[in-house]
Amino acid sequence: MEQKILQKDQIAKLYIELSEEYNIYAPVKEKGNIVFKKISNSDQIELDYLNSKIPPKEVLFPQMEVLFEYKLDGKDVEIIDRQDLDEKILLFGVRPCDAYSFELVGNFFKAHGNWEDEIYLKKKENTTIIGMGCNSPRTTCFCTSVGGHPFQKDYIDLFLTDLGDKYLVEGISDKGKEIMQKLSWLSDAKEADVKKSEELAKQAEESFTTKFNFDLVTKVLGENFENPVWEEISESCIGCGSCTFLCPTCTCFDVIEENDKYNNRGRRIRIWDTCQSCLYTLETSGHNPRPDKIQRCRNRIMHKFSYYPENYNCLGCVGCGRCIQACPVNNELRIIIDKILEIEKEEDEKAVA
Ligand code: SF4
Ligand code: SF4
Fold first, then answer.
1. Given CB 3.0 to 4.6 Å as the disulfide criterion, which of 128, 246, 248, 250 pairs with 55?
2. pLDDT digit string (tens) for 117-132?
3. Domain range spanning residue 45?
């Protein structure tokens, strides 16, 4: 594999070259948080960060999105489709867990019989990801427990490793290799640079303190839909939905219609929704299949670690730890998983006694 070096003071040059072809979305500082935004100059880029508050999923699946607009003429309706879906998007500085999350979100948007979400899929097709290894995973990160790695390159087109004063650059996909070829001014990497990147990857892997056996979690969940543990798990939850709104793999949305009757026009909008809201499953009849927080908390955990593996043969979580950090009442995933595994431990102890 060809490896090159990008000096940190060459980021501006890189931006100028890439912005000729792409709309660039990069981590920027906003109100004290790191978020992915469309940038208009390289000074906005903030690469010295652990991970963004809101995942880059928001670029392809925004919190609020107009699906289409329409005009009314008597009984005739003219649909005005989106004109911006051919935009070439470059996501810059994405962490490996978030790069992988696009695959999981894509499973949802493409795998429902004849139904496909053309808007998400078209944007994804037009997206190139420049990813960056995690030299210092957070204590709340657990990507290695869900099949990932802080230096996983599989879902990234061009991979950067922060070597201190410079980045090691590796073209991973065909798209990434093509970009590398265009950046002819990058210098060649030395053996010592590659060795250093390998050491950083090893150190990062060894630094994880949160580790789970999710095969066991999935098995226990499959056998304990009705277990009283759900009451305990949901007791402190206030249903704020932060754990789902900040999750890079959550895909629930609501669709609303904005009808401007005065001007004979309107638009259809989708907005993020959350299974943690009591209104989420409320049916028109007044029946609610998940009326209490017990069912709603159970649904979130079951969805990620039981239903998702059943439907797609992989976990519905990338181990980013955002839900752990976000929960205002510390009803966090690590504690929940421990409680679930406790069920198995108690069963084993009973069997021995
Ligand atoms: S469930 Fe939590 S740790 Fe897993 S991807 Fe979602 S926010 Fe990240
Ligand atoms: S962030 Fe915590 S309190 Fe809010 S819905 Fe999720 S588990 Fe409940």
1. 248
2. 999 999 999 999 999 9
3. 3-206
